[in-house]
Write a structure and sequence with these properties.
The complex is a heterodimer.
Chain A: E1 14-16, E2 21-24, E3 29-32, E4 53-55, E5 62-65, E6 73-75
Chain B: H1 5-12, E1 19-20, H2 39-49, E2 54-55, H3 58-69, H4 75-89, E3 110-111, H5 128-135, H6 140-144, E4 161-164, E5 168-171, H7 175-184, H8 190-198, H9 204-212, E6 216-218, H10 220-223, E7 226-230, H11 234-255, H12 268-300, H13 304-320, H14 328-345, E8 348-352, H15 356-359, H16 361-370, H17 375-390, H18 398-404, E9 412-416, H19 428-439, E10 446-451, H20 457-467, E11 475-478, H21 479-490, H22 497-500, E12 504-506, E13 510-512, E14 514-521, E15 524-531, E16 539-544, H23 545-553, E17 557-558, E18 563-564, H24 576-608, H25 613-617, H26 621-624, E19 640-644, H27 646-662, H28 668-676, H29 684-687, H30 705-713, H31 722-739, E20 751-753, H32 760-765, H33 796-803, E21 816-820, H34 827-844, E22 848-853, H35 856-864, E23 873-875, E24 880-882, H36 888-896, E25 899-900
Parallel strand pairs in B: 1-25, 2-3, 7-8, 9-10, 10-11, 16-19, 19-20, 21-22, 21-25
Antiparallel strand pairs in B: 4-5, 6-16, 11-22, 12-13, 14-15, 17-18, 23-24
Helix pairs in contact in B: 2-17, 3-4, 4-12, 8-24, 9-24, 11-12, 12-13, 13-14, 14-17, 17-19, 19-20, 20-34, 23-24, 27-30, 27-31, 33-34, 35-36
The chains are: A mainly beta, B alpha/beta.
């Protein structure tokens, strides 16, 4: 994963306050989502980080969950901390 | 420089006065009572102040995914399974410092769209679906509704954040999923299906014209199908979720395959009980996911105090996910969790907690007696509850959330009232609720006192202390009026006097039926109240009374849109009686068509989108085995007709009667010409201000001065003037009776509901000048009994005389708001005067009064410098809201209200 693409809301230590910012639970301070992450970054389970996710051809936001028989559509940024099928890539 | 109306009136010596009882001091006067929140709630409230309204598609994504998978199954099972799946997959977030946890969505002020209700309005304006929605009348209210641009409203997109529905921010990464979800519900949502079936009404086009003209600005069936009602926390508080699942399993076994003597819906009981089990299991998983998150955070936390707090949270949630709460804190966490769960099941505004001080009394009493807690700890928890409730956002269209609700969610917590056997129901915990409301001033839950002559003086004075903070709460509701109304409306459904005493207020001031329940805690038995009625936010809602008069005057035509809304009456309107007759005819046509359309909307809702969790909480759904749509709830006659702009209508009728019919000073055509010319003034939109006083004269507009002066000087409501009071009485007698001619889909008669919420802003915006001298586009008088700003010249007791010239118990409510300068009620003497004034209104038969204790200069300064007033709250019409989150129409109207310098 390219570190430059990572955002704070991709990090397990991030507590989302709103669509623009949240609290870093490591540094105990407010951070903007769209600012560079630090060396304490830990991957938050999301579809895009799951072995069962296949991105749709030609773009990277939408895709398919291959874990289920019905192969439902899903999206890369769906948080999957509660998903029973999540398997880290 | 163009002349403003205030200067013109001053020159003419017209007694329009925006202060009564003296002159306000020149300097800014702060509110007398001001306390600070305790440190923990203060920190969390400060976090709220810095938080944006944020939407996510997490819930709708999981819901829709499961819903699609179950195609072909029975709707209630399909919905329950989808609901279970969605609740089970929500991402839990816990914020540092919280003791009460959980939320609608993962953000602090999070919410989400429900495309199964309506999917078009949150799409981009360029989208073809949005354009299609606009052609339907329902989108017209969106176009004239405005949000405040401050506070947490995301009215414009920025960076990676996209603004939707004029208020909410969503991450751009989620937008493609939102579009895909909304497209999946095209043709299947309640909105789309109702549109299809409403078109089978022969007068569908007429209904859509009414919506486009914004004569009506709210359609409940696909926007907010539930709400302005009182929740019932009893069953989970008594039995715990495990107990309820067990109960449902037993009943399921009993009813499987048995019609139970009911050949129509008897068999439905099996599916309902199965749905109950599914939804409860989903809610349990949701709670336990939060418990897991608390355990995870505890494991990673290095600060021992915070670590212990996370562990306490986990322990609390692990217990209440299954069992009856053991402590006050667990009980408070459980009722908050139930509240949020109901709000996640459907789009709802005004799901009121009810009489929380009486509901939680058993835990409070036993914890205090056992030394498990202190009053200070309880106050802190109640403050935290206030912060969590304030974080609730309701996701709906701009017209609904902005135009009707001003972003408010109307979680009304009531105090006082009577017990089943007629004793005062106040208790020590209710004092602490007031204290928490004073210390932690924030909009939710708003507070109301169910005023009864039997309530103790020290409690009433504590409530007055709270009023003096300027928060706008508690509002004062007349207990006796409410009981009388309830017995009249629900007597036919078996309500007794004892049960009527269990009522509470749903939403801002909707009298809602309740029931008493026997609760046992550690072997001791108590009786607690809870909601027992369907929503009252349903029916024919927000009819713009002055706009209908405008159509009468112009032969059925809406001059703003150029559309012929009503069939031309072609009457000369030669007498006042003829005018009034045509008005009633147009009005009844309006209610008739809207009532039928609303019935279709709610019928589709109950077939495809019925509430399950909300239903099982209320008596007698679990006993009967039926959800709300199958009349499982005890009281079902809750649909109503809601009006707006009553006082401008009455003042206009008085002006016409006097100037055209009695004195014959002007012809009706002259009045019409003056209205079309806006009495020589610019439009409010041109001026950029929506109150009468700031309107500007057009060049050459002086030719209309005489007629405008006469219209302004015609008798006005609120002055104990028999001329205009008789017109109000005639209107109210007709209106309250007329509503009962119409029948809801549950075959119950409608009734009158008279509150404006925020609709006096947008509905005023679409109305031309009115014969009372009000100018085009300006806001109507707020509420239903509040005088038009500046026209009440004889003091508060004269307003009371006018407002009680009719029998207010014939309506679910009526609404009176008064703005009082802080110096007018200073000290204990001022407090007692305010209480006596309140008492006088209640004794005269008024249903509701509330006070805005504020110096108008503060409001003007706040409008110019919103950045300095993030915490300023005002009372609008039945609700308290942050100033910076109000649209300009409403801000202007609140500033313009008459300020009382003495009471």
């Amino acid at each position: 994963m390219n570190g430059k693409e990572l955002k704070h809301h991709d990090c397990r230590n991030f507590i989302p306050v709103d669509v623009a910012k949240g609290i870093c639970n490591v540094h105990k301070q407010m951070v903007l989502i769209d600012t560079p992450v630090c060396e304490k970054f830990r991957t938050l389970p999301k579809c895009k980080n799951c072995a069962h996710f296949t991105a749709d051809p030609g773009q990277d936001t939408m895709g398919t969950c291959e874990a289920e028989k019905t192969k439902p559509w899903t999206f890369a940024d769906l948080i999957t901390v509660t998903c029973e099928n999540y398997s880290a890539k | 420089m163009p002349k403003k109306i205030a200067d013109i009136l001053k020159e003419k010596g017209i007694p329009i006065n925006f202060q009564y009882g003296g002159t306000a001091p020149e300097e800014l006067v702060e509110r007398e009572v001001k306390k600070e929140p305790d440190p923990r709630p203060k920190k969390l409230l400060n976090l709220y102040f810095d938080t944006l309204s944020s939407a996510t598609v997490e819930f709708p994504y999981w819901y829709t995914r499961k819903w699609k998978e179950l195609e072909g199954d029975i709707p209630v099972i399909r919905r329950a399974t989808a609901m279970k799946y969605a609740f089970s997959h929500l991402t839990p977030t816990i914020f540092p410092g919280e003791k009460l946890v959980m939320g609608k969505a993962r953000y602090y002020r999070g919410s989400f769209p429900m495309p199964w209700e309506s999917e078009g309005y949150f799409l981009a304006k360029e989208d073809e679906l949005y354009q299609a929605a606009l052609k339907k009348g329902s989108a017209s209210a969106d176009e004239v509704s405005k949000f405040g641009s401050g506070g947490g409203n995301v009215t414009k997109s920025f960076g990676s954040v996209v603004s939707i529905a004029g208020k909410f921010g969503i991450r751009e990464e989620e937008v493609p999923a939102l579009i895909r979800l909304s497209r999946e519900w095209v043709g299947k949502s309640v909105d789309d299906l109702r549109s299809k079936y409403e078109q089978m009404m022969p007068d569908y086009d007429f209904k859509e014209k009414i919506m486009r003209s914004v004569i009506c600005m709210f359609e409940s069936g696909f926007t907010l199908p539930l709400g302005r009602e009182v929740i019932n926390y009893y069953y989970p508080l008594q039995y715990g979720f495990d107990g309820l699942i067990e109960m449902a399993k037993e009943r399921k076994a009993e009813v499987a395959g048995n019609a139970g003597g009911d050949g129509v819906i008897g068999m439905d009981r099996l599916y309902f009980y199965e749905a109950v089990i599914l939804v409860l299991e989903g809610i349990q998983t949701w709670i336990l996911n939060y418990a897991k998150e608390a355990r995870r955070l505890a494991a990673e936390e290095t600060d021992p105090t915070q670590k212990a707090e996370y562990e306490e949270i986990a322990e609390c949630l692990e217990w209440i996910a299954h069992k009856q709460p053991r402590t006050f804190r667990e009980a408070l966490q459980l009722i908050y969790t139930i509240h949020i769960a109901v709000l996640n099941e459907d789009a709802i505004s005004g799901m009121s907690p009810g009489r929380v001080g009486q509901i939680l009394w058993p835990w409070f009493e036993q914890d205090i007696e056992a030394g498990r807690t202190t009053e200070e700890e309880v106050i802190e928890l109640l403050e935290l509850h206030r912060v969590k409730m304030t974080c609730i956002d309701c996701f709906a269209s701009a017209g609904v959330v902005g135009g009707v609700l001003s972003g408010n969610t109307f979680n009304n917590l009531c105090l006082g009232g009577l017990t089943r056997d007629g004793r005062p129901a106040t208790n020590r915990l209710e004092f602490l609720i007031l204290e928490a409301g004073i210390r932690c001033a924030c909009p939710q839950p708003t507070l109301s006192v169910l005023y009864d002559e039997k309530l103790p003086e020290d409690f009433l004075l504590k409530a007055i202390e709270c009023v003096k903070t300027g928060t706008g709460y508690p509002a004062w509701m007349n207990n006796r009026n409410a009981i009388e109304f309830l017995l009249w409306q629900y007597g036919r459904e078996g309500m007794t006097l004892e049960e009527a005493r269990a009522f509470s207020i749903g939403g801002c001031l909707e009298t809602s039926p309740g029931a008493w329940h026997e609760l046992t805690l550690n072997g001791k038995t108590y009786e607690i109240p809870g909601g027992a009625g369907q929503p009252t936010s349903v029916g024919v809602h927000f009819l713009a009374n002055p706009k209908i008069l405008e159509c009468v005057l112009f032969n059925g035509r809406d001059n703003r849109t150029g559309e012929q809304v009503y069939p031309a009456h072609n009457r000369k309107l030669e007498t006042y009686e003829e005018l009034w007759e045509v008005y009633k005819q147009y009005y009844e046509m309006t209610v008739d068509v809207l009532c039928r359309a609303n019935n279709i909307q709610h019928d589709i809702w109950r077939k495809n989108n019925m509430s399950i969790f909300h239903s099982l909480l209320k008596p007698d759904c679990l006993t009967k085995g039926h959800h709300i749509g199958n009349l499982g709830i005890r009281y079902n006659g809750t649909f109503n007709v809601e009006s707006c702009g009553t006082v401008n209508l009455i003042n206009s009728l008085a002006a016409l009667k006097k100037l055209v019919y009695d004195e014959k000073k002007y012809t009706l055509d002259q009045i019409r010409e003056a209205i079309l010319a806006n009495f020589g003034f610019k439009t409010a939109e041109e001026v950029g201000n929506y109150s009468l006083v700031t309107q500007e004269k057009k060049e050459g507009g002086e030719v209309w001065d005489d007629i405008h002066t006469d219209c302004l000087l015609a008798p006005k409501h609120g002055n104990a003037d028999p001329y205009v009071d008789a017109i109000l009485k005639e209107y109210e007698d007709w209106f309250c009776d007329m509503c009962t001619k119409y029948e809801s889909l549950y075959a119950k008669p409608l009734y009158a509901c008279q509150i404006s919420v925020s609709t006096h802003g947008p509905q005023g915006a679409v109305t031309l000048a009115t014969p009372d001298g009000r100018l085009a586009g300006t806001t109507y008088a707020d509420a239903s009994m509040s005088p038009y700003p500046g026209t009440d010249r004889n003091g508060p007791y004269a307003i009371f005389t006018s407002a009680t010239c009719w029998d207010q118990t014939k309506s679910q409510n009526s609404q009176l708001n008064i703005k009082v300068h802080p110096s007018a009620i200073k000290g204990m003497e001022g407090a007692r005067k305010l209480l006596e004034m309140t008492r006088a209104y209640m004794r005269a038969g008024g249903f509701h009064i509330q006070y805005n204790v504020v110096d108008s200069k503060v409001l003007r300064d706040a409008q110019e410098h919103p950045e300095n007033y993030r915490e300023l709250m005002v009372r609008v019409a039945g609700f308290t809201q942050y100033w910076v989150e109000l649209g300009k129409h409403i801000q202007d109207e609140v500033i313009a209200r008459t300020e009382y310098e003495a009471v």
